[in-house]
Design goal:
By secondary structure, the chain is α+β, with helices and mostly antiparallel strands. The protein has 2 domains: 25-135, Rieske [2Fe-2S] iron-sulphur domain (Rieske Iron-sulfur Protein); 163-365, Naphthalene 1,2-dioxygenase Alpha Subunit, Chain A, domain 1, CATH 3.90.380. It contains 5 helices and 19 strands. It has helices at residues 175-183, 188-191, 229-233, 295-321, 335-349; strands at residues 25-31, 39-45, 48-54, 60-64, 78-79, 84-85, 92-93, 100-102, 121-122, 124-127, 130-135, 163-171, 205-213, 216-222, 242-248, 252-259, 262-274, 277-286, 360-365. Strands 12-18-17-16-15-14-13-19 form an 8-stranded antiparallel sheet. Strands 2-3-4-9 form a 4-stranded antiparallel sheet, with no helix packed on it. Strands 5-6-7-8 form a 4-stranded antiparallel sheet, with no helix packed on it. Helix 1 crosses helix 5. The longest helix has 27 residues, at 295-321. It comes from Terriglobus roseus. Keywords: 2Fe-2S, Dioxygenase, Iron, Iron-sulfur, Metal-binding, Oxidoreductase. Pfam families: Rieske.
Length: 366
């Protein structure tokens, strides 16, 4: 797995436009390989301070990094592999559910029952090498039955044997700009101009068929772009190569490429860290060229280059965004961005129809 950290010293995240965030969803908090038994780490997710750790039995947890007593970060205290203890007054909590199990200052005459007190704790599961955390809507109360939650997102898989890779990069912009950059179909020959991907001379008109799906939209199954060098390699599997791309709220782009029994699938997410910053994660699995040595290393190398090109563009865009310019979206290339904003408002307000009333063809040059 190749892990990339953004070098954006010249960008002050505080100068970037903020946006409204979608709660009541699963988000990838961090790579779970960084969680060792009996250890914890801290991070921000949707502006929420989290204490994430792994218990002695291997289970992972995510707590709000604030003691409900006086508000000191729980990370200032101790974790013994079973319970989290606050540094200020020694209150001790079971981390998966957040239940208080001890208040050392209580005496025999006190009537307070510690087990009726809960620190903030969130459902946390390990899927595709990530610790996914479910952050509920504000005021929705403590989650006591995780079976009612939606399934944790994961990369589609079509065989028992496959290889995988992961890429990660921080972006100095809000999640909206990260997402519409992710789904933008027209920037390829410019941002990703390279001998191994595309050139300015490769631009040609394209027509893609889109259809509505719950909380998103789908670019229907089609032949991969012939002006992208990596896709050309799939030609060795014949002419039956197809790709399908789904976008699903709040932040997920699924891509599946099928070539008979061979396949490649990825899940790319743009996760809000704060209302004005975000992070892109790419999780990919494949059995194409499964037995060819060094393919995972090569795929990670070129994948990292690809993500880094997007990352550098977002850093440059952030310099302009701090002046709060008006945003222009055009048809047809920016239609997916328009759909995203409409879907997001529909989700936040609970009002409105799906922006796609039915299947539609979009045309652009790329």
């Amino acid at each position: 797995m190749l892990h990339m950290k953004l070098r954006n010293d010249r960008i002050d995240p505080g100068t970037q436009p903020a946006t409204e965030l979608i709660f009541g969803e699963w988000y990838p908090a961090m790579r779970s390989e960084g969680l060792r038994r009996g250890k914890t780490t801290t991070l921000l997710l949707l502006g929420v301070p989290l204490l994430v750790g792994r218990k002695n039995d291997g289970g992972i947890f995510a707590m709000r990094d604030l003691c409900p007593h006086r508000g000191i970060p729980l990370s200032a205290g101790w974790f013994d592999g079973e319970t989290v203890q606050c540094k200020y007054h020694g209150w001790r909590f079971e981390p998966c559910g957040g239940q208080c199990v001890e208040i050392p200052s209580l005496t025999q005459i006190d009537t307070l029952e510690p087990t009726k007190i809960y620190a903030g704790a969130y459902p946390c599961r390990e899927v595709d090498g990530y610790a996914w955390v479910y952050l509920p809507e504000a005021g929705s109360g403590r989650i006591t039955d995780e079976t009612v939650l939606p399934p944790v997102p994961e990369v589609p898989k079509f065989s028992g044997k496959y290889r995988s890779a992961h890429l990660q990069a921080d972006l100095p912009c809000n999640v909206d700009h990260g997402i519409i950059g992710l789904m933008d179909p027209a920037h390829g020959p410019f941002v990703h101009r390279a001998w191994w991907w595309r050139s300015a001379a490769s631009i040609h008109e394209k027509t893609k068929h889109f259809e509505p799906i719950p909380d998103g939209f789908r670019m229907a199954s089609h032949a991969p772009s012939k002006n992208s060098a990596p896709y050309k390699l799939l030609g060795v599997y014949g002419s039956d190569v197809t790709t399908t791309i789904d976008f699903v709220l709040p932040n997920r782009r699924y891509e599946v490429i099928r070539a008979g029994e061979k396949w490649f699938a990825s899940l790319t997410t743009v996760t809000p860290i704060t209302p004005s910053t975000c992070r892109i994660d790419v999780m990919a699995c494949w059995n194409i060229f499964y037995s060819v040595p060094l393919v995972p290393m090569i795929a990670s190398y070129f994948g990292a280059k690809f993500v880094q090109q997007d990352q550098e563009t977002m850093v440059e865009q952030a310099e302009g965004l701090r002046f709060r310019p008006a945003m222009m979206l055009i048809d047809d290339a920016d239609k997916p961005a328009k759909w995203y904003f409409a879907l997001k408002q529909r989700r936040l307000t609970g009002k409105g129809e799906h922006p796609l009333s039915g299947p539609v063809d979009l045309h652009w040059r790329s």
